[in-house]
Structure formats: structure tokens, C-alpha cells
Amino acid sequence: MRRSSPFALVCAATIAPCVVAGIVAATREWYPASDWALLELATADVYTLRPPLVGAYSRLGLNHPGPLEMWLLAPVYVVAGRLPSALLAGAALINTVAILGALRSARRLGGWALVAPTSLVLLTVCSLGLAPGALTDPWNPYVGFLPFVWFGLLCGEMAGGRIEAAPWLVFTGSLVMQCHLSYVPPVLAMTALTIGLTIAARRQWKRTTGKPRRGALFGAAALMVLLWAPPIYQQLTVERGNLGRIWGLAAGNGFGTSTTNSGTLAQGAGLENALGHLGRITLAPNPLDLALPQFDTPLPIPWPWWTGVFVVVGLIVAGLTIRGPTSRRWNQRPSPTTESGVADHRPLFLLAAAGGVGMVGGTAGMSGLTFAWLLRPMWALPMWTLAAIVWAIADSPFIATKATRAHARLRATPGRRNAAFVAAIAATVLACIPALGARTPHDAWTTAVRDLCEPAADQIGAAGWPAVSVSTENNADLAFLGFACMATFARHGIDVRVADGVDDVLVPGHGPSSTDSGQERGIVPRIVVATGDAAVAKERRAAGAVELSSLTVDADQRAAGIPNAVVLRSGIAFG
Q: 112-124 and 5-26 helices cross at what angle (nearest 10)?
């Protein structure tokens, strides 16, 4: 068996839950609503003359920093024939690549002493820690979770002397920050520490490998310019650019305005509260922390502030005192950065501490909804802490010696080797079981979206209207059925325009002044999506209204919060 085969088997076992979840999700019928519908609408725009320049819509009156997630999902979406389930498969693909990248970085950092515990932690989190369906969920906070783990390992890899990791670090860091604004503070803090550690290791590079590879640095710089060109272009060409809104939120100027009542989360924030949440999430993690609870769920009571300080100080002490790699036999790829031939992974502890400091610093000045919104990257810290503990144990001389002897016995005894192989397969199968029952996002709304939006899209197509102006008036459930209709119309090749003044944040590029096909805008049909019995009755009584489709919910749908709805053509609009 080739030397790389064990690593390939570990990779296959670790990504198995993600691959199974992606295959299952891709074969299911799913019609997105709410934020997922807006994501499909933006993904469908990638290969048009109005590609997305900013990230997903947020509840704070602005968009997330960049559109990289949509650009990554677009090839899968187009190849699959613009099926909504392609977004689920695309999210699974991103997570699979992130897992493989994390394992590769772990191998380069510490050989098997780091690969084995990293694989165990990732497998545990993917099968038990994350919410069911999170591995295939294209919701932007979920998509940034596993790439954030890979980013941290790349920071450690670069700080350990591998300058060729710089382009990958730029790519993963940009993806994570563009997915969700809350990742920006920890990513910037970890990047700053990585740069400092890299500069400190400069003499080591010259003594062992000569000059560092400047091509990797130039490639990283070029990649950074390419990945951040769309949001920078949007900032320079729009009166109130998105990056300016984000800066206004950070500076407290109020450019970002919440669209959700934060009363359910009106807790005091400040430094003590942020540290308390850091301590609670890290020292006592539970599945809800990793499941990214919804905004209408009150935050748990934070622990005392000193618990967060204990976490940060403990990680710093570990990074400064742990001996580092101890055994050549664990290594698979020699590195010049340590005497043992294994890259030093001790900076990972310092990077985890830097991430915690960045998270606390990014939330200490916020309150209410904004505070809860910016807490999201803290939910990655339990995995960091668990991995750090396992790394430290696996790196001890006692465990390294025992593992080396056990590995030698397995190689010498075919029966034990086969038994270990069977046990590994059984564990992988068990880890894949939760993925088989994973649910799609808002799957209770799938039937309602299909029954309401698809017939309306067929009617619009049969009438030969290339474009429609969708009105958001009288739509109490705009986030679900209104956005779902917009995404469905776009999926059928209908140019969707919004004339209510919300397009700059909710659906960028779909306002009256935006262009898609290059044709001059003119008079287009006005489509009204009305939800709720009162709004439905009012719109049906409107003069000249023509009903395109309607939805009458049953008892189960009503219990799930799905309202009666109707889609009508009500007059004309100037697009």
C-alpha cells in the first residue's frame, strides 16, 4: 500500500458525512424561501450583466461584505439546470473542500499527530455538533463555519514557515469574511498575528531554506485584489456603498438600520457580557451553540467575565509552553522549520486566542440584535478548544510513543489491521446516519412555494412577459413567499424588478434603473404577492387585478405558520 493511502482513507472517512448529505439533499425536491430565495436570486445573476457585487442581505440594513459565496455556487447551479437543490449540493461541495483543505494543512503542520485528532474533531462536529442539514445549507453563516476552521490551520501553516500557503489563506479568509460580517473581527485579528509570527520566523527561513518564495506572496496579493474587486467597485459607484454602511455600523454612525425588532434580545452587552459569552460557549458547548440558533431565541445568560479571560489566557499559555512535535515517526512530509522535521503547530493555540480576542472586541460595543448577530463566530470556538486539547494530548511524548508502538503492531499483525479497518468503516457509517435524515431549510414551505409560485411563473411565461415588477406592498410574509416568488420567476428566465425602494439591500441590481439584458426599460406588468386573509381579500378587490395563482393552506400548513396567499397582476409599472 502506498505511503499516502492512509491519509487518503482518513480524508475519505472525514468527508463521508458531508458527501452523503450532499447526495441526499441534491435528490430532494426543495423550493427556497426567505434568505435562501434571495441567495438563489443572486446566484442566478452571476452570469448576467448585473452580477452580484455585495454579499447576502442582513437584518441590520446592509449586506454582508462580498459575493464570493454566490460566485462559488453559480457553476454548480448552472450545470444542474438551475435546480434549487443545486444550492444544497454546492454548499456540501464547499464544506467538503474545506474539510480536505483542513486535513491537508494539519498534515503539513504536524503529520499524523495533528491529522488524526483533527479528523476526529471534524467528524464529530459534522455528524453530531452541527444542526441537521447544516452541511448542505447554503445559508451564509453555515457556509463560513468549516472554511473558518481551514483558515485557522492555514494561519498556523504560514506562521510555521510555509509561505506557499499565503494564497489559500487569502482565499479562505476572504470567503469567510464575505459570507458573514461577524467573522471579520476574528479573521483580521488572526491575520495580524499570522503576519507577526511570519515576520518573526524570517531568520529561520533564511537559515534553513534561503529566501522565502515571493511568488506566493505576489499571488496572494493578486488574489486579494481579484476577490475584493466587486465590493470595492460597488462602493465606488454607488452613492451609499455597502462597505461604507459596514464602516458606519462599526463606527456607530447608524448607516445600518435593523429591520427586526431587537426587543427579544435586549440584553446589556459590553466587554463583560462578551467575555461571559465567550467563556460559556467555549467551556460548556452544546449543540445549540453550533446550530446557530435563530434571532427570536433569547441569548443564554452569560457566565462571569473572568471565564472568557481564562479561555484566552489558557490558550496563550498553551501556545507558549507546549513542547511542540516530538516524534519523527508521526511525520509524513518533512519540514525544515523544526529539528524533528515536523512543522511547529504551537501557533494554533495563539491563533485561537487571537480569534477569541477579535470576537470579544467586535461585539463589546454592540447591544440587542446586533450583539447576538455578531456573536456567531464564537460558536466555532468550542471546536477550536476541543481540537487544541486533543492536539496537546496527542503531542505529548507518552501518547506519541504509545501511538507509534500501536501503529507498528497493526502493521505487523494483519488480523489487527483488518479489525481496525472494519472498526473505522463502522464508525464512518455511524457518522453518516444523521446526514441521511437531514432536512432541507424551511422544508415545510416547499409545497406552499411550489403551489403558489410555479403556476404564477407559468402564467407570466405564457403571456410572453420578459420582465415583471414585483410589489412588496401588503405582504406580511415577504421574507418567505414574496422572495420565493422572485426567485421562482428568475429561475424561469423572467427579469425580476422591484420598485418599492428596498432593492438596494434586499435584491441589489433589481431596481428600476438596473439592467440585465441590455434592453431599454419600459412599461412592465406589476405583480403583487399578498399574504394573509385581509391582504388577499383587499388585493382581489382592487380594480383591474387579475389572479395568477393562489394558495389555500391546510391545517398542517397553517400550524407551521404558512398563510393563505395570492399572486396577482395589478396594473403596470415603469421598469
A: 20
